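Thread: quick sanity check before group meeting

JM: Hey all, I'm pulling together slides for Thursday and realized we never actually wrote out the predicted structure for the chain we discussed last week. Dropping the sequence here so it's in one place. If anyone has concerns about the input, flag it before I start.
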Amino acid sequence: HYDEDNCCHALAIELTSRNHIVEEQVLVRRLYRGQPVGADYLDLVVDGKVVLEIKKAARFAPAHEDQARTYLRDSGLAVGLLLYFGCETPIVKRLFEPGNVKPEEV
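JM (edit): ok, ran it. Output follows.
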């Protein structure tokens, strides 16, 4: 069985083989009132547009969605996927941050 890091890397390999540009463990600075207060790492960013957050859990947890939404908001990207690989059938939760949509993307 694979842990989350192995799943992320395997998914990055697969997406790259399908001609996507994949960045792993992308640093995102956390700000409060414009001042840095810390940092987090996004599991994967695909084609510079989609955040993929990987979880190895048996079921969906609201705390995971909250974390992924925060990452999405802080990254400045509008689209994300929360992927669960620890269950019998993988679960995909789509996320959208409308405040991060750029005018050229509308």
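AS: nice. Residues 4-17 form the longest helix (14 residues). The chain has a mean pLDDT of 87.
JM: adding both to the slides.
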